Amino acid sequence: MPADSTLPGLPSRPAFWQEQLGGFLLRFRGPKLGDEPQPPPPPDLAPFEPVAIPRTSGPGSLSAHWFPASGKPRGKVLLLHPWLVWGQAYFYRRGRIEALRQAGYHALTVDLPGFGGSGAPHGLYHRAVSDAHSWLENREPDLPLHAWGVSSGGYWAHPVISSGSSVLGAFYEDVSPHLLEWSWRMYPWGRPFYLFFRTVIPRAYRFIDMRRHAAARKAAASFYVSGERDLGVRPSDTQDLARAAGGESLIVPNAGHLAAIKLANQEVLARALETFARAESSAPRASR
Fold first, then answer.
1. Which residue, of 25, 67, 245, 281, is most buried by count of CB atoms within 10 Å of its CB?
2. pTM, two decimal places
């Protein structure tokens, strides 16, 4: 399935029936998850506050946790998890929350719809990211807001940022430019289905091309990380997204999917903090 060679401005939203159908098809043919209980934050991440974020569409609320900064806060960061059964609990390891807090950032972890204590999916997942963004935007509103998304979490952050959000700095790990292009390589047995998606709901197909969103409207600073041996998110995919967003990229040698943070932990954490600091220093004062 070749990628589109032309990437115009902000892609138009699909009709809601297309979005509903697209979301259903993505979940139907996407990687299946087990049914495991999500652990609470470990004691060494205290203090933290459980939060229920209202949804503008879809049932229930979004389950989240607020982790206040250590000392005087300088900003706040929305953490968006990959497509793993643990949901927001994915961030309880690898030091992201600890690094953010020590640098003066509040952190908000959130379960996307269908994960943890969040309500069921409704349409595409950018809607839930937008709800979490709005909640965080209104909490300590004078502080700069940043986003840190991993894999699918970073993927669905792109439409929110391109729609004109207040996100200043964006840091992404292992994000594919297009879920169906990723699926075309990783699950070739499903290619008739992917062609069906592209043909029957073309506006939804274009809308989930994250190169379009990255190029349409940019954060003040953005950074993309992935692994050299990631078969789904190739180094060229990461570099293309970074180029479209006017950002930077890092390809970690010998790392597969979700392994860059394991093999280059301190470098990944440092690059994230540098990205947020650069975004704050380069943004107009009125936008902070």
1. 245
2. 0.92
Q: Are 94 and 122 in contact (CB under 8 A)?
A: no
N-term to C-term CA, the chain = 41
Q: Please state, in angstroms and rounded to a whole number, the distance separating the CA atoms of residues 45 and 88.
A: 13
Long-range contacts of 137-140, Cβ-Cβ distance < 8 Å, separation of 24 or more: 137/165, 137/166, 139/66, 139/76, 139/106, 139/108, 140/73, 140/76, 140/106
Compute the CA torsion angle 155, 159, 160, 162 (nearest 10 deg): 120
CB 171 within 8 A of CB 145: no
pLDDT given at position 287 = 44
> pLDDT confidence of 13, banded at 50, 70, 90?
confident
Q: What is the rounded distance in angstroms from the CA atom of residue 48 to the CA atom of residue 9? A: 40
Structure tokens at 74: 């300088």
166 phi/psi in degrees, rounded to 5: -90, 10
**Between helices 191-200 and 16-29, what is the axis angle to 10°?**
170
pLDDT band at 30 (very low <50, low <70, confident <90, very high): low
Residue 154, token pair as written in the block = 């970073």
**Is the peptide bond between 8 and the residue preceding it cis, with omega within 30 degrees of 0?**
no
Two tokens, residue 47? 């203090």
**Beta bridge partners of residue 250, listed in sequence order:** 225
Cβ-based burial of 128 (10 A; exposed 0-12, middle 13-18, buried ≥19):
buried
- State whether the Cα torsion 217-121-100-69 is positive or negative: positive
More confident residue, 276 or 31: 276
